[in-house]
Amino acid sequence: DRSSERFLQLAGQTLEGLAAGCPWPCMPIVASLWTQKAKRWSDFLIFSASRTVFLHNSDAVVQLVKSCFTATLGMSSSPISCNGGVGALLGHGFKSNLSGRICPVAPGILYLRAYRSVRDIVFLTEEIVSILMQSVREIVCGGLPKQQLKKLKPTKAGIKYGQVSLAASMTRVKLAAALGASLVWISGGLTLVQLLINETLPSWFISVHRSDQEEKSNGMVAMLGGYALAYFAVLCGAFAWGLDSSSSASKRRPKVLGTHMEFLASALDGKISLGCDPATWR
């Protein structure tokens, strides 16, 4: 009812403020005490308490981001998210089932409710890039989602488990890159995008990133990883500065892109030693 909704909006802000200033696990204790007094609001209080772990534990934030990628790409064993897509990422929001209990909350909804509580958002850029590239490896080496693999019909050439067409892989790689760009923009806006292009991506290209999966994929992981990073960077830039020069934010675009182009030119001239696979760089 509306009276409860007004109260919960006020109480929710108060509880989140309390959680931000208190060490773990104060919030779950406070929520449990409130739940005893107001049982009909127990789901709301429990959900609010569960989000406070992201205030104090950066590993929990990383795991939540991984869950967003896993659900979106259909790599989860859960029947709710095994098909992937936006539906698996966002689910049906925050609601209760017929028995009055809280329904499972999709990772995307939980992230949208929790990212404002993350104290250090700078580390998210490196983590999102790392998770994006790991997702590319899983796409190439793991093939299609399990539900889609069952629907594949053999052709004259035959279909082997874990092997999919380049077009199918590219579609999922672009989906992963779009999700990564969305998370960067939502989490830190223009500041995080500039950090990504000026610092995170150059340092990633300089560092060495090799795995057994890449060696066994005949260069497919490296190539698709390069496409993923390119698509990811372009989308982040589009979110931050737009596609034209009409917005005020677009005035910052030449400076940031100029710095990035200087890095690219230095790498092409051999002034900077790259650690990534040449296929990724190309």
From TrEMBL:
Keyword Ribosomal protein: no
Example GO BP: regulation of phenylpropanoid metabolic process
Transmembrane segments: 175-197, 217-243
Keyword annotations: Membrane, Transmembrane, Transmembrane helix
Assigned GO CC terms: mediator complex
Protein name as annotated: Mediator of RNA polymerase II transcription subunit
Organism: Trifolium medium
